[in-house]
Recover the amino acids of this structure.
């Protein structure tokens, strides 16, 4: 099976670190409270910041998050198992869309952690459904509700790896909401089993 895997919020716990940093930025640097919607994954939607405030946040914290986010619990163990089970793993991420230096940093982190596990790497991808179709991906794992809905609309089987504050979305024939990598492993194995029956 071909499994597509997103990076931020799926392999790295970067979305949560982003949320922490954006709070620190508001309290410490901006000294105000402009929270509009703390469920949104996008800081542009969570806060009422002007263009300069947004840019300053990116300048101060983006590279810090890329370099310091932990791996998601269990991600290495489960992807290694899935690979051993004979699945093909394909990274499909928006990271690197603005600046290619973040691809390099991520490659270094993968190398340092013996995690060069993917068969193929797609960087800087925001239109994920198109890539998944072209690659014939059987199942895509993403943590962004909008990506998941877009993938499902394109009839791509999608696992929505949901974090506590993320929006709820309705599961259907193409979307399954799960909460950790252990659940992802169970879901994929049970799916394989059903295909054999
Ligand atoms: Mg993501």
């Amino acid at each position: 099976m071909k499994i597509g895997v997103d990076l931020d919020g799926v392999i790295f716990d970067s979305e949560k670190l982003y949320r922490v940093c954006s709070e620190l930025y508001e309290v410490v640097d901006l000294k105000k409270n402009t929270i509009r919607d703390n469920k949104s994954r996008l800081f542009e939607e969570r806060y009422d910041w002007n263009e300069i405030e947004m840019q300053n946040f990116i300048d101060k914290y983006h590279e810090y998050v890329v370099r310091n986010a932990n791996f998601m619990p269990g991600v290495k163990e489960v992807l290694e198992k899935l690979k051993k089970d004979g699945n093909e793993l394909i990274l499909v991420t928006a990271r690197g869309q603005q600046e290619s230096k973040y691809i390099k940093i991520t490659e270094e982190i993968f190398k340092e952690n013996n995690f060069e596990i993917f068969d193929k790497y797609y960087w800087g991808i925001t239109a994920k459904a198109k890539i998944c179709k072209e690659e014939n991906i059987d199942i895509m794992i993403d943590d962004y509700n909008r990506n998941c809905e877009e993938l499902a609309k394109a009839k791509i089987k999608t696992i929505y790896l949901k974090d506590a504050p993320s929006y709820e979305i309705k599961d259907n024939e193409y979307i399954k909401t799960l909460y950790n990598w252990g659940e992802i492993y169970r879901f994929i194995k049970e799916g394989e089993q059903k295909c054999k029956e």
